């Protein structure tokens, strides 16, 4: 049984219990057999490999768990048609903003730059969202916005954040049901560190969460922990 090159390149690894494991030669041969002959029973696969069914059982379990194969009772195993890459991209495309977002940190428009700096330090964040008296989103303040405002300005208590913030409608936002990968693309495309997660209500946008580069990094790490 030969294994085609394309298959070899994209399917050699699976993730089990957070560890990246290389598919064994036998597992790759099983996939090839099922690909060519599926649906096929485990007896038939065992026959082709001249092994016992019991010997194959752990391999079939791993390949089914990893999503390469699927099993139907009384029919047998069939190839799902998905490569490791496809399975990975399916997983990434299942991540939603609402499952990863963190708590937003907001300041009022009339808060001073000094207060904004304190809020940033106390909450250990790099981006603050600015809201009006109705708690609707009106702007964003980043670390560099605050640094810029601080240069040559000695009384930071006298400058309000609404003077220095980036304001609506130029704010990049996302929604809880958006794909996390779409927000990650926005972070790159717009060259920003954070995006407010918002819910639309009658007169404005309520801030309900925060997506940052850290959020995306965490999701990336979680991919390797996910079985
Ligand atoms: P820093 O300025 O500390 O490098 P960012 O890269 O996030 O942080 O911000 C760059 C600029 O983009 C800042 O002026 C900031 O106000 C603005 N900004 C940050 N986040 C957003 C956003 N979600 N939508 C629109 N503008 C933003």
Tell me what the structure shows.
By secondary structure, the protein is an alpha+beta fold. It is built from eleven helices and ten strands. Helix 3 crosses helix 4 and helix 7 runs antiparallel to helix 8. It starts with a helix and ends with a helix. The N terminus is likely disordered. The structure holds adenosine-5'-diphosphate (ADP). The site of adenosine-5'-diphosphate has 16 residues, from strand 7, helix 8 and strand 9.
Topology summary:
Blueprint (H helix, E strand, L loop, with lengths): L4 H6 L2 E4 L2 E4 L2 H13 L4 H8 L3 H13 L3 E4 L3 E4 L4 H9 L4 H4 L5 E3 L4 H11 L3 E5 L5 E6 H8 L10 H4 L1 E2 L12 H10 L4 E8 L2 E9 H13 L2
Parallel strand pairs: 5-6
Antiparallel strand pairs: 1-2, 3-4, 6-7, 7-8, 9-10
Helix pairs in contact: 3-4, 7-8
This protein binds adenosine-5'-diphosphate.
Adenosine-5'-diphosphate binds next to strand 7, helix 8 and strand 9.
């Amino acid at each position: 049984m030969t294994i085609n090159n394309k298959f070899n390149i994209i399917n050699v690894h699976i993730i089990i219990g957070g560890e990246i494991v290389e598919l064994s030669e036998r597992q790759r041969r099983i996939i090839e057999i099922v690909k060519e002959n599926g649906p096929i029973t485990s007896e038939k696969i065992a026959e082709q490999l001249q092994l016992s069914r019991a010997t194959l059982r752990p391999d079939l379990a791993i390949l089914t768990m990893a999503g390469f194969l699927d099993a139907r009772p009384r029919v047998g195993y069939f190839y799902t048609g998905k490569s490791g890459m496809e399975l990975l991209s399916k997983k990434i495309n299942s991540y939603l903003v609402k499952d990863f977002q963190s708590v937003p940190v907001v300041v009022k428009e009339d808060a001073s730059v000094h207060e904004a700096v304190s809020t940033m330090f106390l909450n250990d964040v790099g981006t603050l969202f600015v809201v009006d008296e109705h708690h609707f989103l009106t702007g964003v303040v980043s670390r560099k916005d605050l640094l810029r405002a601080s240069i040559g300005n000695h009384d930071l208590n006298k400058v309000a954040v609404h003077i220095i913030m980036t304001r609506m409608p130029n704010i990049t936002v996302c929604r809880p049901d958006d794909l996390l990968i779409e927000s990650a693309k926005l972070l790159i495309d717009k060259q920003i560190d954070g995006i407010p997660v918002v819910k639309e209500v009658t007169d404005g946008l309520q801030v309900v969460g925060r997506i940052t580069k850290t959020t995306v990094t965490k999701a990336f790490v979680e991919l390797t922990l996910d079985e």
